[in-house]
Structures are given as structure tokens and as C-alpha cells.
Amino acid sequence: MFALGDLSDADRDMAGIATRHAAVVAANIRTLITDDGTLNTYEKIPTLIAIPLGPEGGAGSLGDGLASAATISELKGREMGVANLDELFDAAATAT
Fold this sequence. Notes:
three-stranded antiparallel sheet; 3 helices
């Protein structure tokens, strides 16, 4: 049995966490189908808080300390994670 997403209170309720769960589940299913490799387990990550304020500002905490506005804008504020979604769905952003 495989489970992913918000099925437990063992981790935070975030889309990014569900995406990480899904990656582990997909890799384990691939391993079982091909009988090549070892099964993986999901490892919790430290608490991450990123609050972008426009393309150049923001604040946050990255588990072990505060994150600067430059760090938050680089991680999330400039393009709100669109590049990660482009890669996940094999899609290119288009202007409308």
C-alpha cells in the first residue's frame, strides 16, 4: 500500500510536502515494477516558511534560521515556483 499527501498529521499540510510524498511513491512503484534498486522512505524536512512580498522582497525561516528578503525572492518571489511546475508537468509558460 502506498499513501501520499494529507493522510497523516505527521508532516505539515502543504502542496510541496505532497509533491515530495508523490516522488517517493512514484520511485518505489518504479522500483517494484523494474525490480531494480531499493525502496525509499519519506524523510521529513525542517519547517520552512517563505513569504514573498513582490519580486524582490519577503521574509522567512529556513529551518535553522531567518531567511533574508534576497533569499526568499530568489526561492519563491520572482516567479512563485512556476519553473518547478513547468518541470513537473513538462510544460513551458506561455503569455496570454
